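To illustrate the input format used throughout this study, we show a single complete record. The first block contains the structure-token representation of the backbone; no residue identities are included at this stage. The design step must infer an amino acid for every position from geometry alone.
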């Protein structure tokens, strides 16, 4: 999922004062999963991405980037 704005996820997590561990707990994944997603070591499964976005009050479309590098218009 190379079209994922990982910085948007990370920045939003930090704005909400959530640690990787707390976000992982809320999303029902391991903190390792959050670290790996943020550090581009793995792409989240669709269900995981949806849960993360829900926990961060983001729409999935907001964190997806079109092929030309721009944020996807919704």
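Output of the design step:
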């Amino acid at each position: 999922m190379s079209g994922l704005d990982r910085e948007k996820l990370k920045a939003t997590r930090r704005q909400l004062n959530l640690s990787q561990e707390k976000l992982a707990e809320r999303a029902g994944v391991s903190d390792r999963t959050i670290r790996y997603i943020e550090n581009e070591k793995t792409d989240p499964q669709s269900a995981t991405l949806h849960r993360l976005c829900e926990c961060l009050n983001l729409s999935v479309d907001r964190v997806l980037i079109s092929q030309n590098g721009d944020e996807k218009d919704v």
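Structural context for interpreting the output: Residues 25 and 31 are 8 Å apart (CA to CA). The chain has one domain: 6-59.
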